[in-house]
Design a protein that fits this description.
Elements lengths: L2 H12 L10 H24 L9 H11 L4 H16 L10 H14 L14
Helix pairs in contact: 1-2, 1-5, 2-3, 2-4, 2-5, 3-4, 4-5
Amino acid sequence: MRAHLLLQRAEEILDEKKSTPQRRPTQIAAFLIRQALEEAVAGHCERLITRLDHPVTMRSRLTVLHLFDQTGAAETAEYTWNALSRACHHHAYELAPTASELQHLLALVRQLVPPTTTDQPPGVST
């Protein structure tokens, strides 16, 4: 699934347009937003250096952004990834993130995702 589709599904869940079988819709939305962010960062790193064929952690990709990206996207990506990771792995004694908090993080991720014209599945033309 591509980053734009993940963000669209998360937004539908947060806007309660899409029902979820789970009792934690905000946690599901957080997972979708984080996955979209990870795909966007991976693509950005590939444009900055080269494609790595072996598994690379998100922390390593964020380090690449900090070293090679001059746009300031690294700080936004790191802040957002940390916040989404906390939202995905919150404990029972913690409050779950609110829909408005996740909407804010979704907006930050949307700024990092490339335009939809480059996010089309193979073989699909616009």
